[in-house]
Amino acid sequence: MNDEFSVEVKGLDKKYKDIHAVNAVSFAIRKGEIFSLLGPNGAGKTTTISMISTLLMPTKGDALVMGHSVRKDPMAVKRSIGVVPQDIALYEDMTARENLAFWGRMYGLRGQALKSRINEVLKIISLEERQRGMIGKFSGGMKRRVNIGVALLHKPDVIIMDEPTVGVDPQSRRNILDSVKELNRQGCTVLYTTHYMEEAQELSDHIAIMDHGQIIANGTHLELVKIVGELDRIDLTLSESVDGRLQDFEKVKGVKKITCEEGKLSLLADDSDTVLPRLFELTARLGLRILTVEVKEPNLETVFLHLTGRALRDAP
Amino acid sequence: MKALDIAYKDLIRSWRSAFTVVMMFVAPLLITGLIYLAFGGLGSGEVSIAQIKVGLVNQDVAVSQVPVKMGNELAKILTADPLKNLLVVTDYSSETDARQAVLDKKISVALIIPPDLTSSVIQDNASTSLTIIHDPASTLSASIVRSIVEPFVNGLNGSKIAAQVVVAQLSKDGMKRDANLPGQVAQAYGNWSMANVPGSNGALPSVDLHAPTVSTQGTNTEAMTALVMAGMIIYFAFYTGALNAQSIIREQDEQTLARLAVTPTSPATILTGKVIGSVFLISIQVMVLMLLSSWFFGIHWGEPFKMGAVCLALVFLASGFGIFLMSFIKNMRQTGLVLGGALTVLGMLGGLFTTGFQNLPKTFAIATLFTPHGWALRAFKLALGSLKGNILIPILVMTAIGAVSMIVGVLLFRRRFA
Q1: For residues A269 and B356, what is the distance between their CA atoms, to the nearest angstrom?
Q2: pLDDT given for residue B66 in this prediction
Q3: H or E stretch including A217?
Q4: Considering only CB atoms, which chain B residues are within 8 Å of A102?
């Protein structure tokens, strides 16, 4: 076992009949860091963490969690991890406290230890006052918080969170992101999946970008942005769709990559100062009107665009 | 321990579901209750008439020529065993006291026996009368007491006529008249009359007419209600078994099953918890239904040991069969097929809805045994005594079907969630 890493994923592979959901994925997560798997829906993030959390058996490869193999010692892996599933997985006809008590028992907690830990977790998720409320009557954000709380009960070494902010209001999202940071400060290793570039950027020490079941880039935020190099990202909103005339934009000197969604063009270009006049000239010639122009510093979305030719939002 | 936690959680969730509670307890009792009422459960004589409180003022005076006091004979009839459940007789010393007791509603009816009742039997032109005083609201009670007293009075009249005829005949034949003769003749006639009322075997006709009617009709209704209730208990026990097993599918849809799978809890423990939950739930259901049906419909469930064994086998069978059925179901949308369709068809084929019908074709009785429901019903019938045979056979068959279906169901579930 390598003491440096909490999670080591080695060539994980998952095939379903005709679908290669995860293809030779490898990465390692250092102890005490937040590691994000960033990718669009269907990239294979959930399948990957399902194998790491022993829910799915890999077709090939292995993953070690705190040194325990998901293939050889799944029970030891389960004891080491706390999983926050993408969907709310709680009993709606039981109270928040009853839910926490039940799940705590499933992790082997009993008696006073269980009671104390439930109180601690209720404090972490800021639901002490609503602990006797039925989950079914909670708002989406409150349910999400209890959903996270369940994974914290047994003080796991590694917390695996699968898109925990999907469908929540901005306030609850903020609360969840702050909780993740707080858990990390307390020494927890976090494996976090998301398709929100901003979340990965804000939370993560390391980020792996996934697409079509493969890791296409892996590193710190800075390392990933460096992949794009000095390229600028230019977003243009046009008066009408240019789906059929994209090749005209691709031919503009200095344009490296281009994608179009709902009348919005996203381009990667060598130098925005020289490329923009050429773009204005082209749109005038095509009889199009430019409604907005935005020039952005390279970010993770730019990286994804650079690597796949698609925007993160319009993938796959 | 974790299996018990899972079972306890399932029990809590079941109690909180109004649908489950209605299907477990209300529906079977309601259906049986409707059938019970439809077949005249309340009007069958099975429900006892409230006892009639009768005040007796026996003022009859003994006469040396008659060996018995007629007033005492009437009192004996009123307090005799066959009437003990119908009449509660209290003695009063005077008519005034008895009247007051009627006014105070301490008694419903007062019967006043006059001082000359016995002497009137042997005196040629004497006549007397018994008085019945009753609360105006208790006309039925008064009629009942009157119907008991009237045959006795008729007997006395017959005795008197017999004595007069004998005395007149002796006088006509010039024979010497013995002073005790009228009394002896009256006594002899009275004994003969009591012994020769058709079908009475010496007892009062009114008593004999009522007693067998109550007993026979009550037994038939009770037996039928017991069988209908047994059918409902079996049907809804299977329903609860399937409903509890359905919680596996529900947890799969709610994502809690996947969450359970990432806790250090083995699939075997999860399934054991589900089975324990099912066994607990059906046990409670069967016990409560039997107790409540005894209370509501007066059902006697037979020998406790036999019925206990049948119930245990039913609990095991319904739990196992529920898991077996649900192991073929992929999602919650399909569960209606099992709960509403398969179980109802099996219940019908098993004869659960035709328990109240007599003289069904023999082939139908045999066909019921192709379903687990039919075996359960057979066991109940044997325990209730409405069928003759060895009760061990259906109990063993139920246990075997329960064990096999549980094993198959658990294996299918384990394979699916592996």
Answers
A1: 86
A2: 75
A3: strand A214-219
A4: 5, 9
CB B394 within 8 A of CB B316: no
Residue A235 CB partners (closer than 8 Å, separation 6+):
A264, A265, A266, A267, A292, A293, A294, A295, A296
- Interfacial residues of A (vs B; Cβ cutoff 8 Å): 53-55, 75, 78-79, 81, 83, 85, 87-94, 98, 102-103, 105-108, 150
Instruction: Tell me if A48 sits within 8 A of A12, measured CB to CB.
Output: yes
| Contact state of A105 with B259 under an 8 Å Cβ cutoff | no
Segments of B322-415 assigned E as strands: none
Q: Do B9 and A102 touch (CB under 8 A)?
A: yes
CA distance B289 to B291: 6
Q: Is B315:B372 a contact under the CB 8 Å cutoff?
A: no
For B62, the token pair is 């003994």
Torsion angle of the four alpha carbons A48, A54, A59, A62, in this order, in degrees rounded to the nearest 10: 80
How far CA B303 is from CA of A117, B146, B276, B299, B412, in Å, comes to 51, 41, 27, 12, 38
Query: How far is residue B26's CA from residue B20's CA, in Å, rounded to a whole number?
Result: 10
Q: Inter-chain contact B262–A90, Cβ cutoff 8 Å?
A: no
Cβ-nearest to A107 among B9, B258, B264? B264
Chain A residues in contact with B12 by the CB 8 A cut-off are: 94, 98
pLDDT tens, residue order, chain B (418 aa): 899 999 999 999 998 988 888 888 888 888 888 877 876 655 444 445 567 888 999 998 888 777 778 888 888 888 887 787 788 888 998 888 988 888 888 888 889 998 888 888 777 777 788 888 887 767 778 888 888 888 888 877 777 787 777 777 777 777 666 667 666 776 777 676 666 544 344 333 333 322 233 334 445 667 788 888 999 999 999 999 988 888 888 888 889 999 999 999 988 899 899 989 999 999 999 999 999 998 888 888 888 999 999 999 999 999 999 989 888 888 888 887 777 788 888 888 888 888 767 667 778 878 888 999 999 999 998 988 877 888 899 999 999 999 999 999 888 888 876 6
**Of B78, B44, B10, B81, nearest in space to B284 by CA:** B10
Q: Residue A38 pLDDT > 50, yes or no?
A: yes
- Is A105 within 8 Å of B2 when comparing Cβ atoms? yes
Q: Distance, in angstroms, between A256 CA and closest chain B CA? A: 44
Strand ordering across the sheet containing A264-269: A255-261, A264-269, A232-238, A290-296
Shortest distance between the Cα of A288 and any Cα of chain B, in A, equals: 49
Report the residue of A106, A110, A154 to disrupt the B interface, i.e. the one with the largest count of B CBs within 10 Å: A106
pTM to 2 decimal places: 0.67
User: For residue B7, what is the nearest residue in chain A, using CA coordinates?
Assistant: A102
B259 vs A: CB within 8 A: yes
pLDDT, tens only, A139-162: 888 898 899 999 999 999 999 999
CB pairs under 8 A between A and B: 56
Give A89's DSSP letter. Answer: -
- Treating both helix axes as pointing N-terminal to C-terminal, what angle do A96-106 and B2-15 enclose, rounded to 10 degrees? 160
DSSP A154: T
Judged by CB atoms closer than 8 Å, whether chains meet at B9 and A75 is answered as no
Across the interface, whether the CB atoms of B5 and A106 are under 8 A apart is answered: yes
Measured in degrees and rounded to the nearest 5, phi and psi for residue A131 equal -60, -25
CA-wise closest residue to B260 among A118, A66, A81, A89: A89
Across the interface, which of B1, B5, B16 has its CB nearest the CB of A93? B16
